[in-house]
Specification:
By secondary structure, the protein is of the alpha/beta class. The chain has 18 helices and 14 strands. The structure holds guanosine-5'-triphosphate (GTP) and magnesium ion (MG).
Amino acid sequence: MGHILVRGASQRLQFLVLITACGLLYLWFSYAHPTRHPSSLPIPPKYDKKKLPPPPYERLWKWQENLPQHNLSLPFPEGRTGRYLKFSCEVKLLGWNNVFNELLMNAHLAYETKRAFVFQDYFWKEDYYPWPRSQSYHRDILTPLNALIAGPTAGGPWAPGDDTPRSVSDDYWQIVCPVNERKRIYTRDVKPHIRNSPGDEIFAYWKKLIMDAPERCVEIVPSSQEEDNYPQVFDLWLWGSSRILPLWESFSKSPTSLLLETSPVVKAVIARNEYLFVPRDRAGWTINPYDRMMAMHIRRGDFKEACLRLAYWNSTFYSWNLLPSLPDPLDLPLHLGWNTPAYNDIIIQRCLPDAKAIVEKAKRAREQYLAGHVGPQGRNLDIMYLLTNEKGAWLENMKEALRKDGWSMIVTSNDLELDSEGMDVSMAVDMDIARMASVFIGNGWSSFTSNIVHRRLVDGKPPISMRFW
Ligand SMILES: Nc1nc2c(ncn2[C@@H]2O[C@H](COP(=O)(O)OP(=O)(O)OP(=O)(O)O)[C@@H](O)[C@H]2O)c(=O)[nH]1
Ligand SMILES: [Mg+2]
C-alpha cells in the first residue's frame, strides 16, 4: 500500500513537471513570436450589462446633502427664516419624462412665488428600472436628481444678482420646515376651480394662492387616487392638450429653462462614447459631430398597443410637440370618425412608422433642413443616431436600409458603452445627444420627445430641425 502510494506520488510529480514545461514553452512561443496575428489574441469576456450592480451614488448623495443652501444660519429668504415650497403631489413611479416636465414647471412656479423649490429624487417605475427591484439600495427605486439634470431646479445657483432662494433637497425640507410649521394646500380644494382652464390661468391661480400664504413653508398635498387620478398641479390632462401652450412664453424664457443643464454624470457618459460619432473622413476630429448628426427617436416594443391607446384617449400630440411653430402638426382630416379603422391607420403611421417610412422621413427632413440651412461644415448631414428601446433584427435591418440611403455612420443607443451610472441615466444620455444633433425626429405623443424639443428650442435651434413622424 505504502509502495503504491510512493510510486503514485512520483508519477504525479513527473506529470506535473511535464505539464509545466509544456506550458512555459507555449508561453515563450506565443509571446516571443513577433508575427502573432491579432485574431489569436485572447478574447475579452463579453461586456455583460446585467452583471453590473446599480450605482450607489454615495458621493453624489453626499454632495446633494451638503449643498451650500442647506444651512439654517443663512439670511432670508434662505435659512431658518426662508420661504419654501414642496409639491408632495409630484408624480412618481412613471417614465422619467412625465416626471421631468412636471418637476420643471413646479420649479418655475416656485421661482415665480419667490420660494425655494424642494426638489425630490426620481422614483422609478419598477418596469423601467434596468435592474431587478431587489437590487435597489433603498426601499424605493431612486436616482438622485443631480445624476439626471443640473441647474437651479436641482439646487444649482440662479443667475448672479437673482435673489430667489435656491432649491433644497427633500431631506433638508424635513429639517427647515417641521411639520407644525407647514401650510398645507390640498389639490382637491383648488383644482375644481380651474379644471380645464388654459395653462396660464392655472399657473396664475396657484401663483396667487401661494404668494398670499404668509407661512414660510407651503406644501401642496395631493388628493387620493379615487378623487383624482392625476392629483398634480400641472397634471397629465394639461400636458396632453393644447391648454399647456399659453405657458410656453413664460416657461421657455424662465431661468428654470434657460439655466437647465445636462448633469455631469450624463456629460461624462457622452464624452466617453463620443468617439463613435467622429466621422471617418479626413475632417475627422476637427469637426463637431453634432453639426452633421440627425437623431431619431424610434419607439418600438409594445408600442403598437400604446399608440392605439393614445389614439383612443387622446388625438392630439403631447405638450411642446403641439407648438404651432413646429413643422409636422397632427392634422387629422375633419371627416374622419374618431376611433374608426381609417383614423387608427393614420395614428399608427404617425406613431409607429415602419422602416420604409422612417428612411423616407429621414431623407425628406435632411433635404428640407439643408435647403434652408448651411451649417458650419457646409451642407452636410450624414451621421445618424437612433434613440431606441428596440434591439435585434428589426434594428439591424433599419440600419442597413439607412446605410443604403446614404447615411455613412449609424450609431444606436445599444452601441454606447455604459457603466452602471450610464445604464441608470441612459434616457438622459440619449436625450442630450438628441438635443445636440442638428436635426431631431421624434414621436409627437411622447414626453421623451417633447422634453428634447423644449431644450432644443431654448438652445435656439430652428423649428425646421424638429420633426415628427
Ligand atoms: N436610453 C433610452 N431609454 C429609453 C428609450 N425609450 C424608453 N426608454 C426607457 O424606458 C422608460 C419608459 O419609456 P417611455 O414610456 O417610452 O418614455 P417616458 O420617459 O415615459 O416618456 P413617454 O415618451 O411620454 O412615454 C424611459 O423613461 C426610459 O427610462 C430610449 O430610446 N433610450
Ligand atoms: Mg412613458
